[in-house]
Amino acid sequence: MTRRPASVRIVATGGTIAGAAPSPRDTSGYRAGALPAAALLADLPLQDDIRLDARQLASLDSKDALPELWQMLARELAQAQSDPGVDGVVLTHGTDTLEETAWFLHLTLALAKPLVITGAMRPATAISADGPMNLLQAVQVAACPWAARHGVVAVLNGRVHHARHLRKAHTHRVDAFDSGEAGAAGFVQDGYVGWLSPPRRRPLRFPPDTPLAPVDILFDYPGISTSMVDAVLRAGARGLVWAGYGNGSISGRIEPLLREAGRRGLAIVRATRTGAGRVAHPGTGDFIQAAGLDPYKARIALMLALGAGTPPAALQALFDTLSYE
């Protein structure tokens, strides 16, 4: 019996992968999201066992992406997951906020089919554009049914990254993304998809339409003004992620303000600004510990948790669970 070709849906949102510059020498002076999805797929050298259909959902520079975009994407991608004619999905996205979108989708979508996010560090018009290979390899991963067991993944520069550990770690190199201490989840080489880590445990899922509570991030630094905390409170935030020194340490002049804000109902997560490592429990219940989540992922988790009405007493257990997901 002949196996039908795998059907992969491309959902395009713009970004550098669809960027255009005046000269093929330009890798930074370009307009993101200038090209439609059809242009990205025009010369993609696909195998005969994969067919594509494309949908243009947005044409954004991802630095301008808002949380509302995450929710719109979640609804669109949930529909694709339930479409019997779709075997896998590739989302093209700008790299500036790709890691945030990947994490939100990972927390809100229960996958039965692969969902792969990709982007590029150089515009499509550059003489050495990385987008075409990234897109081709993302399609190849999306055509592999077992990729769904890894949750939302990103494919960039020949590597597969779990959403939980994905981070942008360089301003302009084509290998700008990594997975920190966890290492890449897998790799793609000439159409072969290899996995270096086991499938992901299924985390607690929030419905895609969960209201997103307003949550801010503040970074500690020598001489930080106490007015920063006041500004967060005046703006009506329901939560705050504090990106502190080392093991989430808080400046002595700021800590009393945070404790008072917590007593007034502000949910405060203590994270680290270092970029790696777990924030350990200090033996006090005054703050929620981000555990292994970086400030950006901790913020999204808190937005969803507060929006879903998670009781304050359950927030620490939630962060501990997500940290090990």
UniProtKB/TrEMBL annotation:
L-asparaginase N-terminal domain sequence ranges: 8-197
Residues in Asparaginase/glutaminase C-terminal domain copies: 215-319
InterPro entries: AsnASE_II, Asp/glu_Ase-like_sf, Asparaginase/glutaminase-like, Asparaginase/glutaminase_AS1, Asparaginase/glutaminase_AS2, Asparaginase_C, L-asparaginase_C, L-asparaginase_N
SUPFAM superfamilies from the UniProt entry: Glutaminase/Asparaginase
Keyword Thylakoid: no
Top-level division of the source organism's lineage: Bacteria
Entry-linked PROSITE patterns: ASN_GLN_ASE_1, ASN_GLN_ASE_2, ASN_GLN_ASE_3
UniProt keyword annotations, A-Z: Hydrolase
Active-site residue list: 16, 95
CDD domains found in the cross-reference section: L-asparaginase_II
Family recorded in the similarity comment: Belongs to the asparaginase 1 family.
Protein name, entry field: Asparaginase
Native organism taxonomy: Bacteria, Pseudomonadati, Pseudomonadota, Betaproteobacteria, Burkholderiales
